[in-house]
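Bit of a strange request maybe. I'm writing a small parser for C-alpha cell strings and I need a real example to test against, not something I typed by hand. Could someone generate the C-alpha cells for this chain?
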Amino acid sequence: MLSESTNRMPRRPPPSRQRGVILMVALIVLVAMTLAAIALVRSIDTGNMIAGNLAFQRAATAAGDSSIETAINWLEANNAGTTLHADNLAFGYRASVQNPAANQTWDNFWRTVLVPGGQVRNLGADGNGNTLAYAIQRLCANAGDPTNTTTGCAQSQSGGTTGGSSKGAGVVELLYNSQIYYRITARIAGPRNTVSYVQAIVAM
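Reply from user aminoacidic:
Good idea to test on real output. This should exercise your parser:
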C-alpha cells in the first residue's frame, strides 16, 4: 500500500505575551535621573545661598571698621579733661566695664543689657544696607578719675622716665605716659538677617 507523504510545516509555539519589563526598567531609570537632577539643582541653590550669606557676613564685618573709627574719633575728641570720667550714654560711652554673664553670647548681652540700658549709639544705615551701632566701655571697675586706685582701671605703666640699657656714652631716657584702655564693640546688622560683631581695644 502506497503512503502519501504530505509536507507539513513545523508547528511554531504561540508568541509569548509582552510583560513590559523593559518599560518598567526605563521608568525606574527615568525616575532615578529626575531625582538626581532635582538633588543637583537644590545643591547648587544651597551653595549659592551659602556663598551669598558669607559675602554679606564679610561685608558686614568690613562695615564695622567705620563704627570703630567713629568711636575712636569721639574718644580722641573727649580725651582731655574729665569728660571720660563719667558715663555719656548718649554717645554710647560707659566709664566702667560690663561683661556678658557666663555662657551668655554677645548678641544676647547686646539685646538684653546694652540696648535696654541705653548704652548703645546707633549710627544708622550705610550705603550697603548695613545698620551700624557701637558701645564704648572704659576698662575700669568703677567710674571716676582713672588715677584714683579705687576706680580700678586697667592701665599701662605710670608716667615717668626710665634710663636706657645702652652702656655707651650717655644714657638715653625713654618717655612713656600712663594710658587708659577702652573697649569698643561694634554691631552690624546687614541683609538676610546678617549680624556681625567687631571689637577693638584702644589705649589713650
